[in-house]
Design brief:
The protein is mainly α. Helices cover about 65% and strands about 5% of the residues. The protein contains 5 helices and 2 strands; from the N terminus they run αββαααα. The longest helix is centred in the N-terminal third of the chain and has 26 residues. It is elongated and about 45 Å long.
């Protein structure tokens, strides 16, 4: 009796990629918090942003939540690209960098001071860089399944 191996790519993430992807999410949170710690308690920047009709103080819970949303959202997007894109790593890099650049509009428009804008942009870049680079390293190079 002979068996043949399937040449179709698996749609499930590689088992070894999961811990690396989880580390990317944790690293995104840590990068955002590290930037916040340097800016707010150490340098004394008052980190506020316009929200609705008032101002919102950006504290650790907001930073953690933003890092989790960015990391988990990136992980989900990467999983979709691996399933449907012909070249998931390229698609991931282009899409993720584009989203990062577009995300900078928020802090630039909503920060209440120049120093707050600089810190919020730095946090976006720190979190985004971890998400783009670390998740990108786990992406398949090619052979995604076209739907």
């Amino acid at each position: 009796m002979t068996t043949t191996a399937s040449t179709a790519p698996s749609t499930a993430p590689r088992v070894r990629a999961r811990p690396q992807r989880a580390a990317a999410v944790g690293g995104a949170v840590a990068a955002g918090l590290a930037t916040w710690v340097v800016a707010v308690p150490v340098l004394g920047v008052e980190l506020t942003a316009r929200s609705g009709g008032g101002e919102l103080v950006v504290g650790p819970p907001s930073v953690v939540l933003a890092g989790l949303v960015a990391g988990l959202g990136g992980w989900g997007l990467l999983a979709l690209l691996e399933r449907f894109a012909g070249r998931p790593r390229v698609a991931w890099t282009v899409t993720a960098v584009t989203v990062l650049v577009l995300s900078l509009a928020g802090p630039l428009a909503q920060a209440t001071t120049v120093s707050a804008a600089a810190v919020l942009v730095a946090m976006h870049i720190a979190v985004g860089t971890v998400v783009v680079v670390v998740l990108g390293r786990t992406a398949r190079k090619g052979a995604g399944r076209m739907a």
